[in-house]
Model the fold of this input.
Amino acid sequence: MWKKITDSKWFYIVVSLLLAFVLWLYVGKEANPSVAAPVRGIKVTVAGLEKLEERGLMVSEGADQTITLDLQAKRNVFNRLDNENITITVDVSNINEPGEVSLDYKITYPLSVYGEVIEERGKRPEKIALTISRWTEKEVPVRAVLTGNVAEDYQQGEFSLAPQTVTVRGREELVEQIDYAQVTVSQEGMTETYRQEMPFVFIDRNGSPLEEEDASQLVTEESTILVTLPVYKLKEIPLTVDLVPGGGVTDVDSQVEVTFKPVDSIVVAGSEDDLEGLNELTVGSVDLYQVFTSEDVTFPVQLSPELTNVSGVTEVTVTVAIKGLSTKVLEANKIELINVPEGYAAEAITQTCSIQIRGAQEAVDAVLASQLRIVADLSDRTAGSQTVPVKVYLDGSSEVGVVGDYNIVVSITQ
Done:
């Protein structure tokens, strides 16, 4: 019977299967042994921060620590574990007061090893030590300083900052130290407007930057400040005045002397394009027929909005003096009344008028009073005795002119 069984092919099939199974058990046990080793550098996740913040508290120290776990598991399980997929969670939602706390933590393994046997043989540290502090926030101004410089013949303008304030949140004792946020421009030899997004540092009440370790614990919505520093070109601009010939003055260059006080030039700042065509600044005009010998006229110094008056001089007094010419006063009695309103009659009450003329001595001596003609325009005048401005004409001489303004008295009747 036994011989019959051993001669059967099924006998050998069954034996082979049994041997294979035994071999599989042996190899499996030897090829996938149990492994014990530490997993280091597992980051801590803090839960319940919202509740903590509602109580005006925050985790000021300890949240950045890491945990080491001493684990034992089959090799194929252990190979699926590392410090990125193991989660360490500590819950701070039940903390109500600031201070030092020591909390238990929860260990969560990845789904890829769910149901597998993992033995925790040790953990370092056993508990997580945290420092709980009161938190606050405040708005601090942003200031800018220039440690660099502008090029020669250039001037810096005023800093423009956006935003102008920064809201900082963090541990109360740190936040209260802050006086302002500072950005520093260290550009050298600037010749054009500087515009850049820049990081800032917090300055404490003693004027010193906050320690980097302390600053790293603070939170702000902004990480940079848009800094604009205008840079202008400087140019010295001479002042001038327009001289309108008249009153016998025919050559202003040789017959008129002009002086300016307190300055005869100003320094102007602006862009190179705006300054390109500005070679002089005319402050006003003077009609020379109104200047008898010398006259002081004060003018405002005005620039276009694109330019800045660096000198700060807002007005100048221009002295206009006539030189090299002679004057003479003649009594003129040729008076004409023109444009008398319809239905009205007019009569000159003034019979003679002293008129001053000016020019070269020889030409002035040759002028006669009969050459002077006084004309009063009565357009739009009404009845009554009144003073009327007149225009004085000098006939027969082109080298001599009348100096000044004149009036006569006229009577208008209906």
Q: What stands out?
A: The longest strand covers residues 128-146. DSSP finds nine helices and 31 strands in the chain. Residues 4 and 11 are 10 Å apart (CA to CA).
